[in-house]
Write a structure and sequence with these properties.
The chain contains 10 helices and 14 strands. With 332 residues, the chain is of the alpha/beta class. It has 2 domains: 118 residues, Rossmann fold; 152 residues, Dihydrodipicolinate Reductase, domain 2 (2-Layer Sandwich). Helix 1 packs across helix 9, helix 4 packs parallel to helix 5 and helix 8 packs across helix 10. The chain is globular, with a radius of gyration of 20 Å. The protein starts with a strand and ends in a 10-residue tail after the last helix. It binds NADP nicotinamide-adenine-dinucleotide phosphate. NADP nicotinamide-adenine-dinucleotide phosphate binds next to helix 4. This is Gfo/Idh/MocA family protein. It comes from Companilactobacillus keshanensis. It holds the Pfam family GFO_IDH_MocA.
């Protein structure tokens, strides 16, 4: 099993460690946190022994007890932490997006290349069997494809805190948060993996007082169809995601965390398409990322990295079109 260090002690990191245990893909050996107490709490909660703790990033990455790091910190920290990891010749699995802008992404890309390590964006949903079912359907019916409407809006558990006058990381331009970078990234992955590179990108954001996008609409223009995307962290949407094939429509219950796929036929009759969904949505990605690293599968890695490059470009183009500026954009 691949030895694993982690950054970030929130629930998502626990979910990744659980997935790694369940699938026997990674073995946690080292936890980084800004505070020893939080790291210890994280370790205690897992009931694991022989796990090292660091509160200093240089010391963490300088240690030899892990060779792959999973990074789940606020978005704006992904770049500096991933860069430091690569400089220490660690493979990196980093939450998406791995960078705040394409300048940062390019630096990581070049450095990972130089050091010969893997830099993998943890786009978990595209690894799930249910997404592969959608992908196969789109590929089979590609000649009839006429567009899509993708929806992913969830009232954030942190929005009440924002409304009470605080600025949680995810609602801050200092941390490269917002609807597009937090939830929109899933939908941009949907579009890139299913439909490829768009010709044009436009984002219309609904800004909050912090300067971040609370919600917005993103349009991706392809040669002969459009993909319209609705994202938001300030409201709950129950709209399905739809992919159009002339008279037929493929229905997904949402754009970021698909649990049900059906087909509406020419006579509007709806048929559910059988597929599988793991209880832990990170199972599939942990298996695949470990396989790529273990087998040194360069072709599979290049494919994933190609998706990441396109997604990061689209995110930046979208932000530019909406006038959405992050603190990280001003740091050079
Ligand atoms: N794949 C998924 O399904 C999924 C789901 C949720 C989130 N995510 C992604 O995971 C990442 C983390 O999201 P989150 O909601 O967990 O973020 P978060 O709560 O703001 O921060 C995550 C961790 O980063 C550290 N941290 C927080 N603020 C920091 C600061 N100012 N400076 C340095 N470290 C700080 C904390 O760990 P310590 O206090 O221990 O240092 C915290 O546990 C994001 O990229 C998000 O998009 C992915």
């Amino acid at each position: 099993m691949i030895s694993l260090g982690i950054i970030g002690t929130n629930w998502i990191t626990k979910q990744f460690v659980d997935a790694s245990d369940e699938t026997k893909s990674f073995k946690l050996t080292h936890v980084y946190s800004r505070t020893e107490a939080k790291a210890q709490l994280f370790v205690d909660d897992l009931s694991k022994s022989n796990i090292n703790i660091s509160t200093d990033l240089e010391q963490f990455f300088g240690s030899t007890d892990f060779d792959t790091v999973y990074i789940a910190s606020p978005n704006s920290l992904h770049f500096s932490q991933a860069k430091l990891a690569i400089e220490h010749s660690k493979n990196v699995i980093v939450e998406k997006p791995s960078a705040s802008n394409i300048r940062e992404f390019t630096i990581l890309d070049q450095l990972a290349h130089q050091k010969g390590v893997f830099l993998i964006e943890a786009a978990r949903h595209i690894q799930e069997p249910i997404f592969k079912t959608v992908q196969e359907y789109v590929e089979t019916n590609r000649d009839q494809l006429t567009g899509a409407t993708i929806s992913y809006m969830k009232y954030s558990s942190k929005f009440d805190d924002f409304l009470s006058g605080n600025t949680p990381n995810v609602f801050s331009t200092n941390f490269s948060g917002g609807a597009l970078y937090d939830l929109g990234v899933y939908t941009v992955y949907d579009a890139v993996v299913l439909f490829g590179q768009p010709e044009d990108v436009r984002y219309q954001a609904e800004f909050l007082s912090s300067g971040i996008d609370g919600s917005g609409t993103l349009t991706l223009n392809y040669n002969d169809f459009d993909v319209n995307i609705i994202v938001g962290k300030t409201k709950n949407s129950f709209l399905p995601t739809e992919i159009y094939f002339g008279k037929k429509t493929l229905l997904l219950d949402n754009g970021g965390d698909i649990t049900k796929v059906s087909e509406a036929g020419a006579k509007k009759e709806i048929t559910e398409i059988p597929t599988t969904k793991s209880d832990n949505p990170m199972d599939s990605e942990s298996v695949e990322f470990a396989r790529i690293i273990n087998e040194n599968d360069q072709a599979a890695y290049d494919k994933l990295f190609g998706y990441a490059r396109k997604v990061n470009r689209i995110l930046e183009q979208a932000r530019m079109s909406a006038g959405l500026v992050f603190k990280a954009d001003k740091e050079y």
